[in-house]
Amino acid sequence: MGLRQVWAEVNLQTLRENYNKLQAYTRSEMMPIVKADAYGHGVIPIVKTLQACGAKRFAVALLQEALEIKAVFPELTVMVLGATELDQMDILVKEEVIPAVFQLSQALALSEAAVKQNKTVRLHIKVDTGMNRIGFREIDFDEIMEISALPNLYIEGIFTHFATSDQSDLSFARVQLKRFQALYEKLKSAGLNIPIRHAANSAAIIHFPESHFELVRPGISLYGLVPSAQIGGNVGLEPVLSWKAKVSHVKSIKTGETVSYGCTFQAAYPTCVATIPVGYADGLRRALSNYGEMLIHGRRSTMIGRICMDQTMLEVTKISKVQVGDVVTILGKDGYEQITATEMAGWMGTISYEVVCGISKRVPRIYLDSMENS
Asked: Which top CATH class is 241-373?
């Protein structure tokens, strides 16, 4: 069976370069964030590449994601940043995955599982400093101290997450940092010494150095996408993923003829239409209908008519000699032109994260690595 005429290319050499550029911003150890299948890039090849760059710790959102990594790389330290259910504690202890703990009930279940398996478990305390998602707050100080007294638990780390570090105004991030440090110092005064602190995400690594501590958590920036329009433009990060398809059909339609469902596009002049076999089931959002652009022969072409589940039509009247089999770039570079996930996100009023995480599993990932060829 041949490969689909739609695919995503993931450049591992670019990933290495991004990792090194980010490492230049900090003396702290980097813990790459590889949740959501490494932001849609494919977790196992990404982890393998970053491990070779020197990364020893990785973080994900779910226990299932951690187990996927541990099955291939049992020697790596993997942490779950999100919630872990109480009935998952046995497997968590067995596989030596580090959980984020933000409720006493989790710690009790974890301790019980650890005692039962005669193991000591590392955990990181999650502190809510203003994100108001998950985490202990200052008023929960006694509960954290209670956790520190539970058998077979080792509080290795304490961490928080910034709500606004990707904005040029860091005043709220500074408030969060102050709260985090205050709670840490209070715990220390009470005799609880926690060796690892972490707070800095991609944006904070780049422009909030006082938040770096022992560990930092690069996420979106590793994949070459800037955390926001305000931050990261000067770092020289390059997108790791490009998304492509081949033209499946080309035809000319007359003035007045329509394209796709609902007849939302009507030709104002004789128009050349190229069809490509990619649609919203692949993660090309239907909101881009009659609006978004793709690259063909190094030029921009507009998506016309409604994007279908598996197909999309392009206006190629002014692009010469478009034919079946020509490569269309949905994300990436073609000649002097480039469409980034950030630009595509802008067309839809969202963020680049949603674009890359949304490219579905039925789009095969192809890994390019210039180091293997050298």
From this structure: mainly beta
